[in-house]
């Protein structure tokens, strides 16, 4: 029963934003699990779920649970950083702007720099925004698509 519940928790967290233990309890109960907040609290600890900041539709900072590294098959550190932290990807001429939750941009910028993609001349990371400088305007659409693919391509 516990394994089935853990699989359900991992699926829920990977497929939708789950903001609190109470919300997770309600979601599990709607799927037929008999759980309490204490049980869910232990499950979260055992699964190693983490809470990361995100921006709500109104622009305020809220948190959501994310699946632990062991349960997600990431190709690289950059893949993990982009898929978990990048909220938007926009491009113009030879620049790409990536947005993240507050305080997360430097993590993503470092991962981009470490990946050493040849078409990236460099990055500038602020608090919640990364500017990626692309070698040429012709390379920008391809590189923008690579970021979009990383953002949505993690398995759960």
How would you explain this protein's 3D organization?
The chain is an alpha+beta fold. It has 2 domains: 2-70, Arc Repressor Mutant, subunit A (Orthogonal Bundle), CATH 1.10.10; 72-152, Gyrase A, domain 2 (2-Layer Sandwich), CATH 3.30.1360. Helices cover 44% and strands 22% of the residues. The chain has helices spanning 2-15, 21-30, 37-47, 77-85, 105-115, 140-152, and strands at residues 50-55, 61-66, 88-92, 95-99, 120-125, 129-134. A hairpin with a 3-residue loop joins strand 5 and strand 6 (129-134). It starts with a helix and ends with a helix.
State the CATH architecture of the largest domain.
Answer: 2-Layer Sandwich
Most strands sheet: 4 strands, antiparallel
**Elements, N to C (H/E):** HHHEEHEEHEEH
How many structural domains in the coordinates?
Answer: 2
CA-CA gap between termini:
20 Å
Low-confidence runs of at least 5 consecutive residues? none
> What Rg is obtained from the alpha carbons, in whole angstroms?
18 Å
Strand tally is 6
CATH topology of the largest domain: Gyrase A, domain 2
Report the top-level CATH class of the largest domain: Alpha Beta
Whole-number average pLDDT? 86
Name the helicity range.
40-55%
Q: What is the gist of this entry?
A:
By secondary structure, the protein is an alpha+beta fold. The protein contains six helices and six strands, in the order αααββαββαββα.
């Amino acid at each position: 029963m516990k394994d089935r519940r853990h699989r359900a928790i991992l699926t829920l967290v990977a497929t939708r934003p789950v903001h609190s233990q109470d919300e997770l309890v309600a979601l599990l109960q709607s799927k037929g699990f008999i759980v309490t907040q204490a049980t869910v609290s232990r499950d979260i600890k055992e699964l190693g779920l983490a809470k990361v900041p995100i921006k709500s539709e109104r622009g305020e900072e809220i948190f959501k649970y994310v699946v632990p590294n062991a349960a997600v098959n990431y190709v690289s550190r950059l893949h993990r950083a982009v898929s978990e932290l990048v909220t938007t990807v926009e491009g113009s001429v030879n620049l790409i702007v990536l947005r993240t939750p507050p305080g997360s941009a430097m993590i993503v910028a470092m991962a981009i720099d470490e990946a050493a993609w040849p078409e990236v001349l460099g990055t500038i990371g602020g608090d919640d925004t990364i500017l990626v400088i692309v070698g040429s305007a012709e390379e920008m659409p391809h590189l923008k698509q690579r970021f979009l693919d990383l953002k949505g391509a993690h398995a759960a």
